[in-house]
Task: structure prediction
Amino acid sequence: MDQREQETRLLDGALFGVLVMSSLVFYWVATRGTWNPLYEAQNSTTPLYFDKAHFFLAQAQALTHGRLWVQPSTLPGECWIRAQKCYGYFGLTPSILRLPLLPVLDHYKRGLTPVYLTAALTLATGSFLASLRRLLTDVLLARSTTILVCITALGFGAASVLTQLTPNSFYDEAIAWSVGFLSLSVYCVIRWWENQRLVWYALLLVSLVLAANARPTAVPFALIVGLGTGYRIWSTRTDGTPHRSRALWLSGALIALPMVTCLGVFYIKFRQPIPSQLLNQEIGGPLAIPAWLAVRSVDHNQLVSWRFIPTAMFAYLRPDGLTFNR
Result:
């Protein structure tokens, strides 16, 4: 075994160790140190406080009955109301991923948020490390390079901001799955760019659709990837002829499917491709809280406008808005 092969094996082992350690850290934080997969965040006043895995479970159960509305008790304070039905603003990806384990989840009446959060963040970290490793395939490795790569890997894994996504919150799990599938899509782009094999394109398409249906903010990334993929295919020539038709079809699918499925689910739920916040029971309807009614009155019943940018930036950046706690 030559020195290059030794360094490569050392790097692979180190990256795998970082992935395992990161997963353990994610799971430990997600369970608040209990290591209990059934752990749910609670406080003394609100049962299942900020743990809306019950919504993702309820939405998965609703899917098996051919509907998307859920009981308001599974989404306290966050129902978006249409036709007197409670819908979740969040996409289908976390619920779809619960379908294979639905009998187990129904038995324990738990959404297993710590497990799913750990899986999502492990997917994100693993995809990043795989991408990093792939990019280093043709680089002459040295012991110092391996150490630097491992430090970078730790920075993205156990020591990264991803650990901040582990409170048992449906906001955080949706973000985690979006980050996970976007990271996977980056790895798929790298592999597809090398040889344009259909398997990597298919996995790329699936990962982008799942990312967009976890968080709509993944749609712009699908647009960027689709344009880049189209350029790659368009510029590839066979017998002097570029693959223009193939470029349009394949890149178009990468752009259209994430966007259509994401906005389509919104339309099915709310009859609006971009739903209004006035559907939120805390902001609109008979259950709107007084503070929001006052805000709506001052702002002429508008919640989205360019004119809110200066005050929003001030609210985020004002020094007295920063507090510290454990």
The two ends are 50 Å apart (CA to CA). The chain has twelve helices and four strands. The CA atoms of residues 219 and 259 lie 6 Å apart. The beta strands are 80-82, 85-87, 237-238, 241-242.
